[in-house]
Amino acid sequence: MTGKPNNFVKNQKLSTSGMVAIAILVILGAFYALAPHDLHISSGFGYGLEHTIHLVLGFILLAAAAAYYAKQTGMMKK
Ligand SMILES: [Zn+2]
Asked: CA dist 3 to 6, 8, 60, Å?
């Protein structure tokens, strides 16, 4: 009998929506963390915030992307 649902695949593939979510987080994170402040302002995504805030926001987005990726691929438990 092979009724056990115990065939956990370690290299779980990311869903398309998961990849899109991560891509958006990475792009936004990179934009805030790496782009010059002039670009933030001229692009309209500066929201009148200081660049320090942009940097923090960028790293949070990148960290969120990494955490989400780890979760989606089963690198972290739960
Ligand atoms: Zn900025």
From this structure: 9, 14, 43
Q: At 2, list the tokens.
A: 């092979």
CA of 46 to the centre of ligand 1 (A): 6
Range of the domain at 62: 16-72
Distance between Cα 31 and ligand 1 center (Å): 9
- Give a yes or no: residue 77 inside a domain: no
Query: Does residue 35 form part of some domain?
Result: yes
The one-letter code for the residue type at 37 is H
Please write the tens of the pLDDT for every residue from 5-38.
Answer: 555 555 567 888 889 999 999 999 999 999 999 9
- In degrees and rounded to multiples of 5, residue 16 shows phi and psi of -60, -40
Number of domains in the chain: 1
Å from CA of 60 to ligand 1 middle: 14
